[in-house]
Amino acid sequence: MDLKYLDALAAVAAHGRFSAAARALHTVQSNVSSHVAKLEDELGAVLVDRAAGSLTPEGEVVLARTKRINGEIAAMRADVASMTSHVTGDVHLGIIGTPGRWLLPPFLDELRRHHPDVDATVVDATTLALTRLLEGGELDLAVVNAPLDHEELMATPLFAEDFVVIAPTGHALAALGDREVSFAELEQHELLLGPPGSVMRMLIDSAAARHGVALRTMAQLDGIRLTATLAFQGYGPAIVPITSIPVWTDRGDWSVLTVADLPPRQVALAIRRRGMLSAPAAAARDVLRSVMRSVSRRIPGVTAS
After folding, report:
1. 107: closest CA among 278, 295, 305, 302?
2. pLDDT tens figures, 232-255
């Protein structure tokens, strides 16, 4: 199978038309059409719906594999280059929003200092979105919420951080002062929480259930920073990881309470089970873990794994 056939299919998927794909590949339309047709002959399946200008289900499967193949080829080139000199190449890192704010700056600084010829691309997204990108080969590694139950991916612990309640001034919870609050006390109020089925929501609900409590929500938000921001602005109390409170934020009209018997949030570093990390990705992984160990010593409520 010629790699040009796979590149042609990927270009058609990205641009929708054979003519546009040809322009992107700096070739003529007949070449793209011929390459896709030959690939379909080899695989014995129609990969492109010519009328709709989109891939068939079989084409989507081939495209997913193509992304992985291209990723492995790029990693191979980077590995060979790194064996003959220093580490060079690209690394694509995904990271969930809250850690990205305080972990990325020192990570990028250290990566640049130790590996100046490694170019990092960072994607900020939810755990669900990042795992899909990682599985598809569009990311090399990702910082995600744990536990991660995924057949194609493996995750190793990176750090843990405490949960807190942000209670706006004027709310009954804020009147309790900055102290520890029980699930029984939280049950009396509607809270801002993550959506059902999310890793953190399941952790919080499980801890509450052990106390015979079912927490009530005033809104379910898929975004930790958004949830914290609404609490800061007085919309309602929220349970969020402690680093949702930026270190540069002056104490505003809200209180911070800890929650009794609520386990910490677990965050992990995920990679694909199959294949090897490229030299740039392995270098980024090592720098990330080193930086995490250093940074965690300065952030109350955060413990490196």
Report:
1. 295
2. 999 999 999 999 987 765 556 889
pTM over 0.70: yes
Number of H helices, E strands in the chain: 10, 14
| pLDDT higher than threshold 70 for residue 78 | no
- List strands edge to edge, sheet with 118-124: 118-124, 89-95, 141-146, 265-272, 153-161, 302-304
Question: At how many degrees (to 10) do helices 57-84 and 29-43 cross?
Answer: 100
Backbone angles phi, psi at 171, to 5 degrees: -80, 150
Measure the CA–CA gap between 178 and 58, rounded to whole angstroms.
57
Tell me the H-state helices in the chain: 3-15, 18-25, 29-43, 57-84, 97-114, 127-135, 183-186, 199-209, 224-232, 279-296
**Dihedral-angle region of residue 74 (phi above 0 means left; psi in -120 to 50 means alpha; beta otherwise):** alpha
Quick one: which H or E segment has residue 161? Answer: strand 153-161
pLDDT digits (tens, 9 = 90+) for 254-281: 899 999 999 999 999 999 988 778 889 9
Amino acid identity of residue 129, one-letter, is A
Determine the 3-state secondary structure of 205 from DSSP: helix
pLDDT tens, position by position, 193-230: 999 988 899 999 999 999 999 999 999 998 898 999 99
Structure tokens at 91: 């690394």
281/295 Cα distance (integer angstroms): 21
Cα R_g (the chain), whole angstroms: 24
